[in-house]
């Protein structure tokens, strides 16, 4: 029979997504103490079944798959920005695919606003209303409230409308940071990624006889097996040393090694590998958060996992990566011209193109142009930016590098940057070629 703790977890898991959960309600429904209910709800939060939100309470959410971990729920956004819910509370469990910053004309903003997105906007009631009608949630910055009609639409469509005291660009930076942190977690290999699951694992039950070990040994050529009780809990390990010379009619629980070391599915690969090496263990039983048997992890699994880790690209783009990936070359232009949109990651706290990103655009365009002249690498020796106007978020940049002098070892370029056909920046760059 399952423990009260497990019964509560099973009850929470069975609740519809979006349900509100309270300690008192769980305690009353399952006839358990409030302390037991509280501990089980906290465990459910660790597993990812529920999310606790200040001033809202605990709600049942959809457990996210690891490949979708970069998709935040609106409940998580609420916590990140320390906001309050003005309407659409029932939609807090939903995930958002992207967020849009409403720092542009209404018509342009609505082109980017679609279902399952989040519009970050100030005190612009019309924009808030149109976003909700398009199926997007709304995050109001600056601590503003909204009118009753907007709240009604949010409640009817179960789309959250959240208010925060932070400004638009601080909020965008906070959400980007949260997504980046989640991506780092995504790239950490855990036991769940590499272990051998239950259906492909050989194990013994505590009621089996020693003779069963010999049957499995003949079938698999393995010498060690986890022992599981009637509640699917790992209660022991049995190896060839435990059974040799023992009566084959003895119950396996009389000869097994009790209380074996286990790892949970969410344990990191590094932690599992350290345990196996330090303790000299070839095989570890894997259990879930309720300590139910899930499978095994072997040294071979760990080695494969480490090899996979070495092949993985590192997480997180630098500003140079973002600039390089965004820049496109227009072949139809008579002069070499590159284009790029100004995205939130490129802006400063005022919401305009940052000086450092402008520098990256200048150097990247120069490098691309000069590859047409030389095959060697390029090292920037000197860069002088002698004119720069503010460029707002969402603007389209046109970057024109003009070679003034291209020698065998050195080069000099003038780089002009336009936005909406207006000159917004000029720079003089001197660089040295280094032959490969």
Automatic annotation (TrEMBL):
CDD domains: CBS_pair_DRTGG_assoc, hot_dog
Keyword Transcription regulation among record annotations: no
Keywords assigned: CBS domain
Superkingdom in the source lineage: Bacteria
InterPro entries named in the record: CBS_dom, CBS_dom_sf, Diverse_CBS-Domain, DRTGG, HotDog_dom_sf, Ser_kin/Pase_Hpr-like_N_sf, Thioestr_dom, WH-like_DNA-bd_sf
Coiled-coil ranges (or none): none
Domain CBS: start-end pairs: 195-255, 256-314
PANTHER family (alphabetical): CBS DOMAIN-CONTAINING PROTEIN (PTHR43080:SF2), CBS DOMAIN-CONTAINING PROTEIN CBSX3, MITOCHONDRIAL (PTHR43080)
Protein name: Putative transcriptional regulator
């Amino acid at each position: 029979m399952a423990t009260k703790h497990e019964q509560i977890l099973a009850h929470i898991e069975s609740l519809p997504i979006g349900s509100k959960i309270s300690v008192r309600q769980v305690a009353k429904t399952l006839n358990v103490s409030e302390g037991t209910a509280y501990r089980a709800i906290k465990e459910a939060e660790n597993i990812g079944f529920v999310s606790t939100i200040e001033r809202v309470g605990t709600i049942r959410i959809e457990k996210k798959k690891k490949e979708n971990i970069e998709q935040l729920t609106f409940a998580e956004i609420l916590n990140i920005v320390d906001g309050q819910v003005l309407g659409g509370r029932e939609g807090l469990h939903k995930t958002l695919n992207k967020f849009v910053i409403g720092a542009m004309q209404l018509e342009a903003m609505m082109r980017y606003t679609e279902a399952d997105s989040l519009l970050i906007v100030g005190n612009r009631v019309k924009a808030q209303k149109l976003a909700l009608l398009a199926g997007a949630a709304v995050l109001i910055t600056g601590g503003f409230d909204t009118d009753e009609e907007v709240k009604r639409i949010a409640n009817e469509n179960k789309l959250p409308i959240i208010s925060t005291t932070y400004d638009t660009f601080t909020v965008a930076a906070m959400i980007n940071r949260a997504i980046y942190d989640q991506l780092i977690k995504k790239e950490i290999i855990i036991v769940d990624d590499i272990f051998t699951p239950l259906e492909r694992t050989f194990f013994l039950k505590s009621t089996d006889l020693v003779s069963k070990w010999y049957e499995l040994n003949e079938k698999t050529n393995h010498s060690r097996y986890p022992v599981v009780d009637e509640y699917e809990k790992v209660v022991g390990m049995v190896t060839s040393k435990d059974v040799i010379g023992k009566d084959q009619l003895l119950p396996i629980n009389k000869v097994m090694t009790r209380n074996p070391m286990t790892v949970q599915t969410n344990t990191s690969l590094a932690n599992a590998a350290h345990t196996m090496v330090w303790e000299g263990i070839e095989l570890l039983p894997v259990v879930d958060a309720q300590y139910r048997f899930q499978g095994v992890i072997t040294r071979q699994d760990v080695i494969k996992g480490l090899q996979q880790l070495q092949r993985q690209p590192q997480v997180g783009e630098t500003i140079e990566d973002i600039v390089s990936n965004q820049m496109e070359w227009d072949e139809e232009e008579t002069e070499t011209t590159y284009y790029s949109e100004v995205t939130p990651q490129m802006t400063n706290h005022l919401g305009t193109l940052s000086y450092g990103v402008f520098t990256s655009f200048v150097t990247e365009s120069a490098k691309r142009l000069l590859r047409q002249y030389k095959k060697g690498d390029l090292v920037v020796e000197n860069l002088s930016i002698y004119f720069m106007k503010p460029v707002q978020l969402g603007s389209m940049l046109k970057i024109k590098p003009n070679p003034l002098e291209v020698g065998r070892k050195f080069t000099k370029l003038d780089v002009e940057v336009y936005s909406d056909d207006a000159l917004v920046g000029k720079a003089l760059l001197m660089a040295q070629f280094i032959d490969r």
